[in-house]
């Protein structure tokens, strides 16, 4: 192998290695949502309310974006696929949270963009405070919610 071919091969391997590293890092951040432009992966409506938006990365690097956490959960049920990371917004602060770290409040009386009544907050104390004002509200972790939906113990009541 001549020197030119060797350098080309070395450069190609370096580019491939750097590309592989960059993909995994992107899962550490939520997919970008362009509010007022991007559409929900489930209902195809424009995502406009940041505090209620949610998203996830698939393991093959595709982003899924949603206008309401209930829309994301419905999509996950009807389109099972492996997720690399799942993200929700704290309804109080609009801060992105990893879904597995979030506390969920679920109640039909909670106003959300698509009427699913599912919101997220950063801690259990905030979740309990929000639930206190809602009759029959349920508080749980995101993982507990996903398990209850999968087992049929809970069902999504879509408001549209």
What does this structure look like?
It contains four helices and seven strands; from the N terminus they run H-E-E-H-E-E-E-E-H-E-H. It has 160 residues and is of the alpha+beta class. The protein folds into two domains: 1-30; 31-151, no CATH class. The strands form two sheets. It has a four-stranded antiparallel β-sheet with strand order 2-1-3-4. The relative contact order is 0.13. The model is unreliable at 14-24 (pLDDT under 50).
Q: What is the end-to-end distance?
A: 65 Å
Number of domains: 2
Integer-rounded radius of gyration: 19 Å
Question: What series of H and E elements makes up the topology?
Answer: HEEHEEEEHEH
**How many helices in DSSP terms?**
4
Q: How would you sum up the major sheet? A: 4 strands, antiparallel
Helix % is 25-40%
Keywords:
160 residues, alpha+beta, 2 domains, 4-stranded antiparallel beta sheet, 3-stranded antiparallel beta sheet, 4 helices, 33% helix
What does the secondary structure layout of this molecule look like, with pairings?
Blueprint: H1 3-26, E1 54-58, E2 63-66, H2 69-78, E3 83-89, E4 96-98, E5 103-106, E6 118-121, H3 124-132, E7 138-141, H4 142-151
Antiparallel strand pairs: 1-2, 1-3, 3-4, 5-6, 5-7
């Amino acid at each position: 192998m001549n020197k030119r071919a060797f350098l080309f091969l070395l450069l190609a391997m370096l580019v491939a290695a750097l590309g592989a590293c960059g993909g995994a890092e992107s899962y550490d951040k939520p997919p970008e949502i362009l509010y007022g432009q991007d559409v929900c992966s489930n209902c195809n409506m424009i995502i406009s309310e940041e505090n209620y938006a949610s998203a996830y990365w698939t393991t093959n690097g595709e982003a899924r974006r949603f206008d309401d956490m209930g829309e994301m959960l419905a999509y996950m049920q009807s389109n099972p696929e492996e997720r690399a990371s799942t993200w929700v917004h704290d309804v109080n602060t609009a801060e992105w949270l990893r879904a597995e770290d979030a506390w969920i409040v679920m109640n039909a009386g909670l106003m959300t963009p698509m009427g699913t009544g599912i919101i997220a907050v950063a801690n259990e104390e905030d979740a309990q405070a929000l639930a206190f004002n809602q009759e029959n509200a349920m508080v749980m972790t995101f993982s507990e919610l996903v398990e209850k939906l999968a087992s049929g113990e809970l069902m999504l009541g879509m408001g549209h």
